[in-house]
Amino acid sequence: MAEQLGELTRTHTCGALRPADVGANVVLLGWVHRVRDLGGLLFVDIRDREGITQVVFDKDDETLMAKGKRLRSEYVVGVEGRVRRRSAETVNPKLETGEVEALVRRLTILNEAKTPPFPVADETPVSEDVRLKYRYLDLRRPRLQNNIILRHRVSAAIRKYFDANGFLEIETPILTKSTPEGARDYLVPSRVHPGEFFALPQSPQLFKQILMIAGMDRYVQICKCFRDEDLRADRQPEFTQVDVEMSFARPETIYGVIEPLMRDIFAVVGRAIETPFPRMSYADAIAKYGSDKPDLRPGMEIQDLRELFRESSFRVFRDIVANAGTVRGFVIPKASHYSRSEVDGIVDMAKQQLGATGLVWARRMDDGAVTSSVMKAMGEDAVRQMLDATSTGPGSLIFIAAGEPDSTSKLLGQLRLILAKKDGLLRPDDYLFTWVVDFPLLEWDAEEKRYASMHHPFTAPHDADLDKMGIDPGHARAKAYDLVLNGSEIGGGSIRIHDASLQSRIFSLLNISEEEAKLRFGFFLEALEYGTPPHGGIALGLDRIVAILSNESSIREVIAFPKTATATDLMSDAPSPVDAKQLRELHIQLREQKS
RNA sequence: GGGGUGGUAGUUCAGUUGGUUAGAACGCCGGCCUGUCACGCCGGAGGCCGCGGGUUCGAGUCCCGUCCACCCCGCCA
Question: How far apart are CA A491 and CA A478, in angstroms?
């Protein structure tokens, strides 16, 4: 039976007591972390967010001892007692409070607790579905407590930084307008307007641009965004963005704001990072790393080997080069530990999992001897020559692929990361940032047979590429940039179009008719015509940043109440059916499920 | 939509070529214990082997389907 709190007032948290408090009468409020019953002596660890304190029951007081023996894991208690110093032999160096303990004078059992489905008091791994169902218990454990506390401190540092730099935090609507393009919207039916829907924002994009038109100059918001797409370890249907927009900004203006911000964020975990961040064009990122979010930690850049094979006797590669294909490869400098069968296994794995067709390898052994999977076809001299040309020294190994340029780079990029991870080259304590810039403005959508915006339709083209838009729109570059850290895209943004006529041209390139544009973005196009300052911004993925800082491989570990890979909440069991009455009010009729 | 890994006690796992009564550790319950701190010692309870079907004399184990969790591809301006 639970007792009431009454006049019980906390004097210290469970992480607070020190030798200086010896003799004090204290009240601790918290959870029973662990019980050690020695018969005539009972130790109980009391836990709260701040720490753990040991309290002692002595059998001098039999009633009190009897009550203490009722305590079980996760009971909520109030303990009144006197602080005393522990003898030298009984100090617990693992606890901040380990030099002292409290001798209990009064115990209040504020609540009992069922036996938890998994131990809260230790870090033993538990399957994720159980953790998600009992999220409130998982959140009591140190891992998530620390992550959530870290997340708060990062958010606080962000707000402090932007406040100090003249940004205004302004809220934008959650109930907003559905727009074509981009991710699938979460829709909210309107009760008042039958058949009409709000959409939850994929990002506050148009609103923040309108705030610039409204003269707010510098805007920031830590906001929830919603995208109804399939999930990944780093993607949740609702996620948090640090959304930023600035008037009169060039890309350098944005870098100049974001780099010191990242410095402040990393200072939260005591890490110094170097600024400015290096910049790399999108084309280089694809060519050298096979990815638009390159992980720079392992080195092992992909090299263009076309010249080596243009005149080669190795016909397969020569033909590919002759037919506008590519031959590329990357070197693993320290590969002595790979056995022949292991290397063959890697090729098999790449064929199966990555769809590699023409993957070959060559290596120089520690003693200088050379071998290759195509030794016969190429000839030893040619192999040796190739290894020389690619700086494949003793003990190193090169993987080479040939074919269509983009897919070849992508394949090598994936393989590079798999092998780097295997060899422990993705060191979690290295933080390598880079800006990826000069994205293409548009990409060809083969399915819909039209151009689509690579970033979004409000992205400004490069000044130098404005004239390309009529003749060769596919090669126009955008004033867009991504911030990449250790192979993770942690932010992306662009300078926006501030000119209504240019915006209209973009829509027509995207095959969005004037009527369609008016219907979907009319309010915005009209706003553009009332004195829009040049402006641009960026959005940072807060969940991903905190995940990297806490060395977690999934953003679920830094979100208090995340969803599963099938976008459900195992704790609340959302989504769930609703009453027929609710549906009627919303003018919604359910269709029979197709079987 | 596609590919992969896993699902056995409350939890984490083991379970042989298909063969007796499905095990261990931790947790839980009871007992003993005055300096423990992952307390210790003794005893006990606890299982729809994810679910449904099939093969078989016999299925945790083999086959088919299905559900759930996780990872990846597609998708994510």
Answer: 16
Judging by beta carbons within 10 Å of its beta carbon (0-12, 13-18, 19+), is residue A447 exposed, middle or buried? exposed
Whether A51 and A57 have beta carbons less than 8 Å apart is answered as no
* pLDDT tens readout for residues A415-466: 999 899 888 888 888 999 999 999 999 988 877 778 889 999 999 999 999 9
Nucleotides of B strand lying within 7 Å of any protein CB atom:
1, 10-13, 26-29, 32-40, 68-77
- Provide the CA A593 to C1' B69 distance, Å, integer: 25
Task: Quote the CA–CA distance of A29 and A46 in Å, as a whole number.
Answer: 8
pTM of the entire predicted model: 0.95
- C1' (B48) to CA (A514) span, angstroms: 62
ipTM of the complex: 0.94
List pLDDT tens digits, range A515-526.
988 888 899 999
Residue whose CA is minimally distant from B40 C1': A38
CA-based nearest residue to A454, from A506, A498, A500: A506
Distance A124 CA to B26 C1' (A): 10
Q: For residue A303, give both structure tokens.
A: 């090299």
Strand partners, A361: A399
CA gyration radius, chain A: 30
| Six-digit token string for A65 | 């001892």
Could you check whether the bond before residue A575 is cis, i.e. omega within 30 degrees of 0?
yes
Q: CA A548 – C1' B16 distance (Å)? A: 44
